[in-house]
Every structure is written in C-alpha cells, then in structure tokens.
Amino acid sequence: MAAKKLEFKNGQHVVYPTQGVGKIVRIEEQTIGGMKIKLLVIDFEQNKMTLRVPLDRAEISGLRPLVSSRKMNEAIENAKGKAGAKRMIWSRRAAAYEENINSGDPMKLAEVVRDLQRRSSEDSMTFSARGLYMRALERMAQEYAVLHNLDLDSASEKIEEIIGVPKEIDLGAVEEDLEEPPEK
C-alpha cells in the first residue's frame, strides 16, 4: 500500500513539529549546488521566524497539514484523563515530555498536558514542569486556534476550560521553599 503524497499550497496552515503552526506564504524555486529545488516558505508568526523546507523533504521533516477538528477534540478528551504513571526519575520524564512536545502530534501534546496539569489550587508545580506544560498547551492551542478561528490566548483558555483546569489556579505559582523567614 503506497503512502499518499502530501500536497501543500500557498496560504495553507501547516504544523512543523519543532516550531508549531505556521502558514505557507509561497512556494519558490532556488538553485542550490547546481540543482533546482522547490522550497516551501513557511512563516511562523508566533516565533517571528521564516522557514524554508525543500518540498521533496517536507514529509520526512514531519511537516503536516492541520488535523481535523474531530482529531483535535479526541486529543483534548485524552488530556482530560488521569495522569500517566510517574515512576520514572523527573529528568527522564522531562526528556520524554520534551520529545512529545517536539513531535507536534496532538495526542502526544495532550499526554503532556494531561500529566502535568494542576487539578486543584493546592497542587504545586515546579518551574520546569510549568514550562513543559505551558509549551505543550501552547502547541495544542496554536492548532486549535486556527481550526476554530480564535486567538492563541482564547484557544488556551478554551482548552483548559474543556479539560477542567480550575480558573483560580495561578500558573505563575511554582513550588517554593516551605521555610518561613524568621520573625523579627
């Protein structure tokens, strides 16, 4: 069974695994090393970056069109579930979360969001866990925002509302030393 060749066109929103959602602004031809190569020129407005990907290497690089709304809703439902097993050392779990974030796969992003979300205002979150959570949520929200014609902040809020992150949680709060300063 032959794999279906991906087709890309100007103005199309795409996901590049390590950068998130971008928009193809043009397809250009350049001569590199004496060979004519077609390049997809992708603008990542959020990162203020432009990326050129050879058209014949686009699929290998992980570039893909946006998922369907149905697939995104499945990912968000997955983020509602119970957190996965936490038997690994934090550094290994963090590396696995990082790999999931850089995969660009909505289901893997949802796993990171599910495992790291705070479920009550009493839960604390380390600085590194908060950073991973925010990056995974942002990547999901980028795609959700384009699919539902929302801005990034609204998309993030909507996803957190759907998965049940309580509004009173301050994501800026991180674990601190529990020692109180001596009274004078």
If you had to describe this structure to a student in words, what would you say it looks like?
This protein is an alpha+beta fold and 184 residues long. It has two domains: 53 residues, Thrombin, subunit H (Beta Barrel); 95 residues, Methane Monooxygenase Hydroxylase, Chain G, domain 1. The chain is 39% helix and 19% strand. It has five helices and five strands. It has a five-stranded antiparallel beta sheet. A hairpin with a 3-residue loop joins strand 1 and strand 2. Helix 1 runs parallel beside helix 3. The longest helix is centred in the C-terminal third of the chain and has 22 residues. The radius of gyration is 19 Å and the shape is elongated. The N and C termini lie far apart (76 Å). The C terminus is likely disordered.
CATH class category name of the largest domain: Mainly Alpha
| The CATH homology group name of the largest domain | CarD-like, C-terminal domain
CATH fold node name of the largest domain: Methane Monooxygenase Hydroxylase, Chain G, domain 1
Q: Main sheet: which strands, in order across? A: 4-3-2-1-5
**Which regions are unreliable across 5 or more consecutive residues at pLDDT < 50?**
176-184
Give the overall form. elongated
Mean pLDDT: 85
**Cα-atom Rg, whole angstroms?**
19 Å
Q: What is the end-to-end distance?
A: 76 Å
Helical segment tally? 5
Helix content: 25-40%
CATH architecture assignment name of the largest domain: Up-down Bundle
Sheet/helix structural class = alpha+beta
Secondary-structure element series: EEEEEHHHHH
- The total count of strands amounts to 5
Q: Number of folding domains?
A: 2
How is the main sheet built?
A: 5 strands, antiparallel
What percent of residues are in strands? 15-25%
